[in-house]
Design a protein that fits this description.
By secondary structure, the protein is mainly alpha-helical. The chain is built from seven helices and no strands.
């Protein structure tokens, strides 16, 4: 039954991913593609929409995948699956944190998880980057996509608000798409 499969799949993703939504991306990609729920290209489109809509990335992407796969009930199951592990773990940690916050084991665990989270986010960047830059058929399309990327990067380093970066990048994409360049 697709609803239980969505719930269980996203529960596992939520349970075994530390570091937020982008750290989940490699797991989501592997699970979604292995089950044939969507292609890598479709997933990248959902990543863009998930990033552009309000709310946590992990909740948005799981909701979109669930809706695409199983309709409204699929969206509910996938979303519940991805948030339940965090909810359960936070309840446990909140109850025990005061007792263990000075533990060397807990400190060591957290110190070990931080570099792994950076690596998972880096893997997601590379995976999504390949899907964004490699399928273009001509140099104009690749140049336009690279220009939008560089513009966005510049705006981020100039400390422009993320909403402004998203709006400007979307507007550039619309303009270049309307002009037939991408």
């Amino acid at each position: 039954m697709i609803y239980l499969e969505l719930l269980w799949t996203f529960f596992k993703i939520g349970l075994f991913t530390f570091g937020g939504g982008y750290a989940m991306l490699p797991l989501i990609q592997a699970e979604v593609e292995a089950r044939g729920w969507m292609t890598q290209s479709e997933l990248v489109n959902f990543v863009a929409v998930s990033e552009s809509t309000p709310g946590p990335f992990a909740v948005n992407i799981s909701t979109y995948v669930g809706a695409e796969t199983g309709g409204f009930l699929g969206a509910v199951c996938a979303t519940a699956g991805v948030v339940l592990p965090s909810f359960i773990i936070i309840l446990i940690v909140a109850g025990c944190y005061e007792k263990f916050k000075s533990s060397r084991i807990v400190g060591g665990c957290l110190a070990g998880l931080r570099p792994a989270v950076v690596a998972l986010i880096g893997a997601a960047v590379i995976s999504v980057g390949k899907t964004v830059f490699l399928p273009y058929s001509g140099p104009a399309e690749l140049a336009a996509s690279a220009a939008i990327f560089l513009l966005s990067l510049l705006l981020v380093f100039k400390k422009l608000h993320p909403i402004a970066v998203i709006v400007i990048s979307a507007a550039a994409g619309i303009a270049l798409g309307y002009a037939g360049i991408i």
